[in-house]
């Protein structure tokens, strides 16, 4: 209540507190820990605690300056929410210290404090890396102390990938003509992330080729849709600018689509999500012989590191099969029956050995 949002000229959403036609008061991001305190202050008619009240040259002061910067504004809303929470805890623990104490050793200590949850620890490192990069660019720090800090190894394959059996089960549950089926077909054939699936529309398709600039990395992705998928699009109710729409005819939000698709998968007996389809698509392409650069072009990866996760596994599988065939061929030559006697090599040698004894 009384919270309004507005898109800036940079395409970012900002939030204000306003009662009726009264004065607008800028609020922190709703996902940040400071939001509730600021909102409560507005309801009481009191001023919001100032972020600039931090003592100069402290970590809290540096964080406040960074979160007012253009570099911060350009981050995705979900990233800002996540990092706002991380910085809240950094400020609570070390905000009063001078920012000159942000050293490689201090960052490593922060990782150690979070070692029990390595994914969160690595998110902390990413957040601090963004802060330090901005601080170096603006001459607050001489060098970026995060560059020499290594991420923690996470012993996990992340979201589970779909397999052929999953795809078949899903298709049996959701026939052609349903939005659920169209969502799967587009996800499998394009490998798009959830943030791009909800944006894809007919305006992105020309002569059967879908081209879209990805939201996460800004990479231009171009993929060809087979005739069968184009026919499924025509057989499904779509929006004017969005292929995938809700039962009310509205575009999906990212979170809404994720929840909706997860529920659709569970109805087909599959406990997996849309990112698992992206993994399935990448694995299928790699197993079919796609190179790392081809995968980068389709999946919008900025470097070959992620692509090589799939090509390396596919190459090892192909080389393993090839090697096993060589072994099999050699053993066939060794153990095959002799043309004259019908006896294999091993049997002939065994008889010779018995004769000598």
Automatic annotation (TrEMBL):
<feature type="domain" description="Tyr recombinase">
    <location>
        <begin position="153"/>
        <end position="324"/>
    </location>
</feature>
<keyword id="KW-0229">DNA integration</keyword>
<dbReference type="InterPro" id="IPR050808">
    <property type="entry name" value="Phage_Integrase"/>
</dbReference>
<dbReference type="InterPro" id="IPR011010">
    <property type="entry name" value="DNA_brk_join_enz"/>
</dbReference>
<dbReference type="InterPro" id="IPR010998">
    <property type="entry name" value="Integrase_recombinase_N"/>
</dbReference>
<dbReference type="InterPro" id="IPR013762">
    <property type="entry name" value="Integrase-like_cat_sf"/>
</dbReference>
<feature type="region of interest" description="Disordered">
    <location>
        <begin position="337"/>
        <end position="357"/>
    </location>
</feature>
<dbReference type="Pfam" id="PF00589">
    <property type="entry name" value="Phage_integrase"/>
</dbReference>
<comment type="similarity">
    <text>Belongs to the 'phage' integrase family.</text>
</comment>
<keyword id="KW-0233">DNA recombination</keyword>
<protein>
    <submittedName>
        <fullName>Integrase</fullName>
    </submittedName>
</protein>
<dbReference type="InterPro" id="IPR002104">
    <property type="entry name" value="Integrase_catalytic"/>
</dbReference>
<keyword id="KW-0238">DNA-binding</keyword>
